[in-house]
Amino acid sequence: xxxxxxxxxxxxxxxxxxxxxxxxxxxxxxxxxxxxxxxxxxxxxxxxxxxxxxxxxxxxxxxxxxxxxxxxxxxxxxxxxxxxxxxxxxxxxxxxxxxxxxxxxxxxxxxxxxxxxxxxxxxxxxxxxxxxxxxx
Length: 136
Hints:
The chain is of the alpha+beta class. Helix content is 23%, strand content 33%. The chain has a single domain (5-135), classed as 2-Layer Sandwich (Alpha-Beta Plaits). Strands 1, 2, 3, 4, 5 and 6 form a six-stranded mixed beta sheet that branches. Strand 2 and strand 3 form a beta hairpin. The protein starts with a helix and ends with a strand.
């Protein structure tokens, strides 16, 4: 088995940061607010990535499925900004194998959305989506 978790996460980060359509909404191309490690007191809106990986290797083949969760956080007065940014992420990652080829990805599919909701602070909206990204 070759663990491709970090390569996939790096490829996702690179693909998202390469999209001017997305980065214009989250800090611009020189300093996009797309994180795997959240800074103290982040500026809104921003995108946060997490990943969970499963090895499906067998005797004669190797591969991994990665579930990448993309969470968008916004302090806009309505949920519209968070949902619009999530849609831009969807357009990049769903069937985005070409953008993720550097990590040996052969499939990248949207696998679901989480609810869009206001956090307990009463001002922050969250909108999440998950993608299954397969290497092997």
